[in-house]
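Milestone M4 deliverable, item 7.
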Amino acid sequence: MLTLTAENKKTLFYILIAFAFSVAMRFIWVYQFGDYAPFHFHNQLMINTNDGYFWAEGARDLLSGTGTNPDAKEFYDKFHQLNDLSPVTTAAAQLTAFFAKILPFSFESIIFYMPVFLSSLVVIPIILIAKALKNLEMGLIAALLASIAWSYYNRTMAGYYDTDMLNIVLPMFLLWSIIWAVKTNKDIYLLFTALDILVYRWWYPQSYSLEFSFFGLILAYALIFDRKNLYNYKLLAIMMFAMMNTHGYIRLGFVLAAFYTFKQEKYDKYLYYILVASVLGFFVTGGFEPIWAQLKGYVFRDSVSSTDKGLGLHFFTVMQTVREAGHIPFETFANRISGNTVTFIISLLGYVYLLYKQRVMILSLPLLGLGFLAYVGGLRFTIYAVPILAFGMAFLITEISQKFIGKIKFLFMMLLTLGVLYPNYKHIEAYKVPTVFNANEVKVLDALGKKANRDDYVISWWDYGYPIRYYADVKTLADGGKHSGAVNFPVSYMLTHTQKEAANMARLDVEYTENKFKFQKEHKKEIEDKNLTIFSNIEDMTKDYGFKNTNNFLRTLASNIKLPKKTRDIYFYLPYRMINIYPTVALFSNLNLMNGAKGKQPFFFASRNFKDLGSKIQLAQNIFVDKRTLQLTLGNKTLPIRRFVKTYYTKGMQLHKEVQLVNFSSDISVIYMQNYNTFLLVDEKTYNSLYIQLMVLQNYDKNLFEPVIMAPSVKVYKLKI
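Output delivered:
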């Protein structure tokens, strides 16, 4: 019969307390919005992260498909279509589908609450690490703090259905197994460490860099502190086998073989040969290439990318517009890690002191280092430093509390813990993020899914790609994973150019996209063996239409050019919310593709916090519209306007427009969207763009488009050519 020691009972008790606390804090958002109708669809709360719809699509397709082989025809019978990019082979989708099969809850409830419970598992390795350091109270405090710290909470709250729900849990388990391996030298932790890496890679393929950092630090630790201990080299070798850049089952085979070998003392004489073989296997399989790719993507970034092959086209890089990859101020950096700048500094000092007292915690530096990369590489990385600096703060609290005895010691420890938790709790209370789409927008997509075929394309900006695919079960040109500059250029071009140019580009880009899928499938071996360059759709179009200069090709889109044969329908999804990002959308096509020169920035300004001052309307601090003369004041300049447009809905929800022409010498028009409480200032190019004409004004060319759904929140049009 298994008996628990007093220490093990205490460990389990602390884990349960920390886990329950973490879950409870994540239910605050549920309590705040549980009855808010716009956040519900089909009586279920919707998720609040765009990427979540990617994994949800894969899980849905796994549950609906009739086969398990994604290359088999029967797998696509019900939902999953060829070339729809559904992530049916990813860990998040597979785990979700598994939970959906075994749990008695709706699919929507499972994806909404999975981050609540899975992310809270982080308390387990934190407390187990503390147990190895003989300081369980430190583990409890660190677990409480880490589980609700700003950035960790933000990316694992209720509804934040994304890989982040295990992206810290798994490396913390890896740190736990490494620490216990180094401290105990038990063979079982060799296997635990390797299996941790295999599971982590399965869940998050981008884990290469962190795994490699752990390997490097263990190597340094062994050489400096314990170079004669053969166990350390066994640990390094089995880690390297687990880290190779090849199929998981192959790596598992190498891991099990290595584990069996290392348990046989007679094979110790071959240890260094095995270690060298593992390192060679890592590099031969291209293990370092993904690490370098990540560094280039987040640290060594350019605003414009180009290639020296083909036409050498230049494209605007998406990383320049992704907030989570941008630079952040120090205060934000500190708050996201520890909840407060002062707490952050104290935690950092406590961590340094912990390293001095427990040198094995040096092995946690990769996580801290990756977290600190956020200061130059983007705020998303801060979550990696959260549990490590939580140890620093918790260690200081327990050390200071040692000065007291009895109940006073406990009371003092509790007060200090509550003090460091409070800023994070206040952040949770105030962090009232919305769902990705509101109920009205989702109703439009649900209705569109009933009108469109599953092989049809819906065109919109990449921010909305995943939700469109999930709710309407259609294809998109761009989404949260497919949004390179080359992919975004044609979509941006469609949304920000005239209806004729947009229509021609839409048909071209969709048909070229499908043809490229077909070509890549039919010539897969040739592409891999000869490393053939796959050019962008824009480059292929330019060449196919007989041009060497893409700018010249683009000019032809305003005319009646011969288009590819139509193979499917195309819809435009134009949400009102896109007004917020229109200037960003325009960046991607406002570019000379031949030399990378950026064009003149379009004039676009939106105001919702305007004031009626009687004779004037104040749109911003230094922007006014004179109601009598219809002149525009921008700072010290007074300018005429080209036209003043007022839009409003009748009781029957029909859009009406009042257009007042003022001065054709001006390039700026004012649009007042009465029901949206929004003023727009736009130049003539923007005014004539597809987005403004179709979404804002509903002025559509009947030869090119037909309205499908005309809801105030979203306008959907079908392309007729």
